[in-house]
Amino acid sequence: MSFDLLIKNARTRNSIEKLVDIGIEDGRISRIAAGLNEKADSTIDADGKLVTESYVNGHLHLCKVYTLTMVGQEALTTYQGGSMGGAMTAIELAAKVKEEYDESWIIENVRRAVKLAVKFGNTHIRAFADTDTKAKLEGVKALIKAREEFKDSVELQVVAFPQDGVVRDPGAEDYVREAMELGADVVGGIPWIEFTDEDSQTHIDLMFNLAKKYDRDVSMLIDDAGDPGLRTLEMLTVKTIKEGWQGRVMVHHARAMQLYPEPYFRKIAALLKQAEIGIVSDPQTGPLHARVRDLYDGGVAVALGQDDIADAYYPFGRNNMPEVAFLAAHLLWMTTFEEMEILYDLITVNGARAMGIKDFDLKEGNKANLVVANARSVWETLTNHEAPLHVVKDGKEVTGR
Ligand SMILES: [Zn+2]
Q1: DSSP 109
Q2: pTM over 0.85, yes/no
Q3: Is the dihedral of CA 327, 332, 336, 342 positive or negative?
Q4: Domain hosting residue 229, numbered range
Q5: Which residues surround ligand 1, an ion (CB under 5 A)?
Q6: Longest CA–CA separation in the chain, Å
Q7: Measured in whole angstroms, how far is the alpha carbon of residue 224 from the centre of its chain?
């Protein structure tokens, strides 16, 4: 017996005191034990460093990366200012850049961002492409191209996302349909941006029709403004259960959750669990955020996302998920050792669960998507959030690709 890849002297989150070896065969973890002596085609000596699952980024507007200087500062200050009262206006301002949308320049920005993902061990990304009457299919085409180019090192799940609404933007629905024909992976949505509750419901229904027709998962930006009366999370959850789409729907942002009355929040948390909906929060990109810790404690598949990289909504970002967790530690006040472990779950196993990635946890028989951190503990990894020393995707080393 021999391995394709053998990681020696690994410290795992479960084996802090003793080091183990991890044998990988046909893309999967075949053995975890101390002192494995089998031959291997290649060997990595982890030298006592922390080895964990690779990082998962549940939400990234990948078509917009590095467009901040094209858009200017106005949208950014409008989105974040005044307790997010102007979030809708910000989206309208940011939409201007889409008049310039062209696959040829978008793909260059996308490559730059995805290369950073590889560097920082971020192997799975749910990547949103604006798909509407302004962006047309330019973003989707760029992301599908990048998905193929990087498929050995990063899994990009391409979401066709009608950023400016469906009822508000007649024609957007057709572009989302065309995107499905082109091979986009996920049907997007942003029902809260419609002007009435009736239109929000129509938005959800139309996008679900497409999801069912093409047998695709659903990812929607939900209740993303400073208004406690927003109810599209509830609408989507009810729809998910009604259509039997449990385990196939993700929600993003849900920042108004922080303002929901407590009894209403508790109902929503119960419904999310019932609908098996994954929820991704990005507390670093806006002044409000979903109630991450309460959702985690309630057993909801909650995770963290990068959300933006240098665009109209957020000026920083580099697809470094331990950096996102480090920021979240402050914004969510999760600073005990126990909470650091939770944060680490939110960028690894919980992200995978939210995104429907199977067999992801570091154990025998599962897929070998791993990082060798440049650190010996979760605490040190979050503190320094340095690039990992080694990145393994589906059993192959992809470090520095
Ligand atoms: Zn977002």
Answers
A1: H
A2: yes
A3: negative
A4: 55-355
A5: 307
A6: 65
A7: 16
CA distance 203 to 209: 10
pLDDT tens digits, one per residue of 192-249: 999 999 999 999 999 999 999 999 999 999 999 999 999 999 999 999 999 999 999 9
Distance 27 CA to ligand 1 centre (A): 32
Check whether residue 41 and residue 174 sit in a common domain.
Answer: no
CA of 127 from ligand 1 middle (Å) equals: 10
Give the Cα separation of 136 and 114 in Å (integer): 22
Q: In terms of C-beta density within 10 A (0-12 exposed, 13-18 middle, 19 or more buried), how is residue 178 classed? A: middle
What does pLDDT average to over the chain?
Answer: 95
E strand map for 92-154: 122-130
**Within this chain, do residues 17 and 103 fall inside the same structural domain, yes or no?**
no
Same domain as 229, residue 120: yes
Ligand 1 centroid–CA 280 distance in Å is 9
Please indicate, yes or no, whether residues 81 and 133 belong to a single structural domain of this protein: yes
At 118 the pLDDT is: 97
Whole-Å CA distances, 178 to 70, 136, 166, 204, 276: 27, 10, 14, 18, 28
Write down the residue that tokens 């503990």 correspond to: 377
CA of residue 208 to ligand 1 center, whole Å:
20
CA of residue 285 to ligand 1 center, whole Å? 8
